[in-house]
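Supplementary material to the annual report.
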Amino acid sequence: MNAESHNPTHLGADALRAVFRLHASGVAVITGVDDVNQPLGFTATSVTSLGSNPPLVSFNIAQGSSTYEHLKIGAKMAVHTLGTENLNLAQRMAGPKENRFSKTDWEIGPFGIPIFSCATSYLVGTIREVFTVESNAVVVLGVESAFVNDEEQSPLLYFQRGYLTVGTRLKDNF
Amino acid sequence: MNAESHNPTHLGADALRAVFRLHASGVAVITGVDDVNQPLGFTATSVTSLGSNPPLVSFNIAQGSSTYEHLKIGAKMAVHTLGTENLNLAQRMAGPKENRFSKTDWEIGPFGIPIFSCATSYLVGTIREVFTVESNAVVVLGVESAFVNDEEQSPLLYFQRGYLTVGTRLKDNF
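Predicted assembly:
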């Protein structure tokens, strides 16, 4: 590479899009309740571990999202990991709000939070921080408990605007 | 599911671990320079898009990391996406600090940032925010430019303490 080849191929928002098209992520469904205990939730590809002592998870959300106003410090939330068998759930929870809880595949779980027991696992925690940046927010959840349902299923991935399975294991990192 | 089955199978840090074992993530390498313009960098599985207007990226880091002290607001950083051909790079940048820049596969790029041109792409940006939570931090980068190198290669995934390829595409989300 010479200095010439450092010339960027993309700028600004286009640069973000170009790079994230090449970045895969796991798919999760986040749920909670609103002020009158009605279920709320959405599909998220931004769930990531933040620390283990104490256990913390972060996810990102647009402040324009209908869910955002309900993400208050102290609120209880669940984060579900999805497997390939949860493809329909991922699509439904990313679609119109009125359809998200229209099926009978969820139940009222701990703290009244809607739980999709078909997910491969879920954790329950409490919102500790909501950091705002421009029109977005980073939400930090303190993790309290988890329920593991299925450890064998391939996780569901999001990549290049589609849903995928994982492929070949190249190398252990034990 | 009945009330009984909501009994958690894991608590606290064990809950975090159990759930994140079932969550896959993309693998990135983040680079920058220290106070005397020496290269620094690390492998990260927490890189995620935060917003597109303006374009923002977030990643998480432990405050105990040797790199943390150099992540100051205004600092320029690069975030590289990795493909499966970058497996060795991912392992090296997650290993001992003294080995990370011991090979000749990097060059000095924009703003003096070390760039691995073998990565599938990289973006360059400026640290806008460093949000601290307990002994961890969420770093927010404003994205300025990007260079795309290889759009065909499978992205490198991290899952269950190993490196993987992506598998079958199940569904488009156009």
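DSSP finds two helices and 13 strands in chain B.
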